Amino acid sequence: MSPIKKPLVTLIVCGRFHFHKYVSLLSKRGVLRQFVYSYKVNQYFGLQKRYAVNFPAKEYLMYAGAKLLKKSIFYSYLSLLHQLWQLQVLIKQPGGNIAHFLVHGNCHKIMKAYKKKGIIIIGEVVNVHPEYQEVLLQKEYCRYGLKYVTGEKSFSKKIAKEYKLCDYLLVPSTFIKDSLMLHGIPKDRIKVLAYGFENKTTVKSNSIISRNQIINLLYVGQITFRKGIIYLLEAVKDLKLKNVEVTLTLIGGLDKNYLPLIKPFLSTLSIKYKEHIDNKDVLSIMKEYDLLIMPSIEDGFGIVVTEALSVNLPVISTSNCGASERIINGQNGFVIDAFSKEAIVDAVLISIEYPFDFTSQNYTWDDYAGELTKFYSEVLKTG
């Protein structure tokens, strides 16, 4: 009988995504061979330097290009940076027996090279299938009488290449899994593993939204068609008409093409807006609010949902946000239908003086790393 192989995993991401939350936890479990990424210099995410392989130039060049180049030129420029990123990674000789990639259309050459070496390829998919996303967005554009412009075809083709190269696809929600299966990817190639909470909650929350207080609503994420912000703005308007005192803060990058549609609401509702907050400040800022609202039309997960729940901030989220699967409906938040301002209004009204309970949130990033380690072992057994 041949000895059971131990997972030796190379994590590869063009950027850092959420991998920084658990990469050191994989290292402590003895399964991490290397973490290959592109981020700021001298950022090791709790790893010993020998495990961290950083290519920071791509990040700095990307930020410079975003500021200096026109949008039409920038996408070609970004594609070139991704090509250079792949060449940099390919200089390093592949090792270990598993390579865990973020599927985002910028690693297919690396995947192909690693696969030729007999390394098992796991692709982490964080958005629904591109064709399914287009269906949802077409519906939204039609609402305003706008012509939907199909997304960059070359990007979709790159994603499709990566799907094919992966032996297994790791997804954080059944929302993503269902979209992949709808487009022909076999169920047995897909593993659902939801992301963890920031900390364990051991006591019941006693924070109640009083009927006599101003209700402070928060949204964190991109402000664009895909996120359904206009339904949230319409809901705030209706709540004010019902004499419910609410404030709304939007935090995130603003899509200039979306601005004309929401601008009338921004001026008449006195919405607070911040383009960016540092990742390390997210949890402390969330504690200042009463509800997080995620009105997403399509969101593969939405990690701000678990971040909010981690600090006992109740969440109202559409079922089109994968992280809504971390909400126990009627306990730590409410899951509502997408494309509906009425659903948001009703959920906010129910939240007033509602006894939210966060005691069941005991699945942390450390637990996630443990489950991920088990998955690595399973794929080695099956080959």
Walkthrough of the structure:
- With 383 residues, this protein is an alpha/beta fold.
- The chain is 39% helix and 15% strand.
- A 7-stranded parallel beta sheet has the order 3-2-1-4-5-6-7, sandwiched between helices.
- The model has no long low-confidence stretch (mean pLDDT 91).
Count of helix runs: 13
- Percent of residues in beta strands: 5-15%
| SSE order, one letter for each helix or strand | EHEEHHEHEHHEHEEHEHEHEHEEHH
Q: Gyration radius, to the nearest Å? A: 22 Å
Low confidence ranges: none
Distance between the termini: 16 Å
Percent in helix: 25-40%
- The assigned structural class equals alpha/beta
Q: What strand line-up does the widest sheet have?
A: 3-2-1-4-5-6-7
Characterize the overall form. Answer: globular
**Largest sheet: number of strands, sense, barrel closure:** 7 strands, parallel
Mean pLDDT equals: 91
Overview features:
single chain; 383 residues; alpha/beta; seven-stranded parallel β-sheet; 15% strand
Short description:
This protein has 383 residues and is α/β, with parallel strands linked by helices.
Indicate the topology.
Elements: E1 9-12, H1 23-28, E2 32-37, E3 52-54, H2 57-68, H3 71-91, E4 98-102, H4 108-116, E5 120-124, H5 130-143, H6 153-165, E6 168-171, H7 174-182, E7 190-192, E8 215-220, H8 229-241, E9 246-251, H9 259-268, E10 272-274, H10 282-286, E11 291-294, H11 304-310, E12 315-318, E13 333-336, H12 341-351, H13 365-382
Parallel strand pairs: 1-2, 1-4, 2-3, 4-5, 5-6, 6-7, 8-9, 8-11, 9-10, 11-12, 12-13
Helix pairs in contact: 2-3, 3-4, 4-6, 8-9, 8-12
